[in-house]
Amino acid sequence: MRLFLIICVLVACSLIVSTLWVGWEITLTSESGMVELAGLIVFALGAVLSLWRMPKGTWRRWWPIPTVFVLFCLRELDVHDAFFTPGLLQTKIFTSAAPLWQKGVSAAAMGGILLTLVLLVMRGTRPLIHALRNGQGWAWAIMGGVCFAVASVLVDGADRQLAAIGVTLPYADAPIWTAVEEILELCFALSLIFAICKWGRNDAGLRAA
User: Transmembrane region positions (predicted)?
Assistant: First the structure.
């Protein structure tokens, strides 16, 4: 837990310094702002920590965990919209005029991501439910992280959802909603770090799952 507290303090200090230096709007809403950079670093730490704390002899089963953290890092770097037109992970590429080899690379990337997520859900659901019933902190941290992620998605689409029912948000409020979304995403990342820090190397549930 000491490591998690250190990470939280460093993140908070970086956000405070950035806010004092360039202002809250750039810090919290810019694609190159500190909150985006902090999220990227936290996900990268998650990949390293999950590898380090993984129960011995379980790499072949639990490799999707650090892999998911790497995927989150790539998402923060907008890799899904890069490389090709309209983007590596954009389904529109299959109906575009992109070369066949680009479509093949995109299909392989999408398939690899889908395989990782499916294996993680299949292998992780049972030990997660077991841990929730036993009140283990890492499992509840994951559930909290899921709540943050869902809230972030809802906030991200709030203007479009409200517009569908005839409610238009003031333009001046847009940076505030963007900041809330980015903070929720950072809380999601920190929740996963908390789960990793509470996830012991010798966790019997994960070893036996």
Answer: 34-52, 104-125, 137-155
